Amino acid sequence: MADPTADAAVAVCFAVKIDGQDMGAFTSCDGLSFEVQVEQREEGGNNAFIHQLPGRVRYTNIKLTRPVTQESNRLAAWFATMTYPIKRTQAEIRAMTADGKTVATWGLTGVIPVKWQGPSMSAESPKVASETLEIAHHGFLNTG
Q1: pLDDT digits (tens, 9 = 90+) for 22-61
Q2: Three-state SS for 7?
Q3: What's the pTM?
Q4: What is the pLDDT of residue 12?
Q5: Where are the domains of the chain?
Q6: I need a labelling partner for 131 at 20 to 30 A (CA). Which of 4, 27, 70, 105 fits?
Q7: Backbone angles phi, psi at 36, to 5 degrees
Q8: Is it true that domain 13-37+52-141 has CATH number 1.25.40.10?
């Protein structure tokens, strides 16, 4: 019997490209999901089931986090092009293993930056400075 975990790999970083430009690697990626809103309709004389009608698809915002590095300048340059007018772009997120092998790839369409949060720094409690990028999108692209 085949081992279902044989192809499973632990992703240690997430490489991000926006409009083909490499934005570097992130250590955390949260929010790769979508939900179809379902509307329920009851039909008179039909007691066997309630109709489940698909509605709009809702894509959650994606949050990417990493330590601040020189790659952070690439984000700043991208933000500078997005101030006005804001234009939607395409992005790609690749889950990577420690040896650089791509585990999975997600393409995104209609991407805009929603929020960037820089590091909180204090001399009293030194720790790694990190940044978080939050993006919104219109959906997933077929990357296969």
Answers
A1: 999 999 999 999 999 999 999 999 889 999 999 999 999 9
A2: coil
A3: 0.83
A4: 85
A5: 13-37+52-141
A6: 105
A7: -90, 120
A8: no
